[in-house]
């Protein structure tokens, strides 16, 4: 359960990165994208802006 006490928690940089890495590599929550989704987003933006 999340701590909602509003306290400030200070972590070392390595601990913070390690924890983030563990969360992002949890394959029950996240899945690896087959391709970079930003390529499609960039194309959509260009298609929208080119006619302007």
Layout of helices and strands:
Layout: H1 13-24, H2 37-49
Give structural notes.
There is one protein chain. The protein is mostly helical and 52 residues long. The chain has one domain (13-49). It contains 2 helices and no strands. The protein has helices at residues 13-24, 37-49. The longest helix is centred in the C-terminal third of the chain and has 13 residues, at 37-49. The chain is elongated, with a radius of gyration of 19 Å. It starts with 12 loop residues before the first helix and ends with a helix. The model has no long low-confidence stretch (mean pLDDT 88).
Question: Nutshell version of this structure?
Answer:
The protein is an all-alpha fold. It has two helices and no strands.
Low-confidence region ranges? none
What is the share of helical residues? 40-55%
Mean pLDDT: 88
Total E-strand runs: 0
Ends: how far apart? 49 Å
- Helices and strands, in order, run as HH
Count, helices: 2
Beta-strand fraction estimate:
under 5%
**Secondary structural class:** mainly alpha
Major sheet summary line: none
């Amino acid at each position: 359960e999340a701590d909602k006490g509003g306290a400030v928690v200070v972590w070392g940089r390595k601990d913070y990165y390690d924890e983030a890495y563990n969360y992002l590599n949890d394959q029950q929550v996240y899945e690896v994208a087959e391709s970079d989704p930003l390529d499609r987003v960039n194309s959509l933006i260009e298609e929208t802006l080119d006619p302007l």
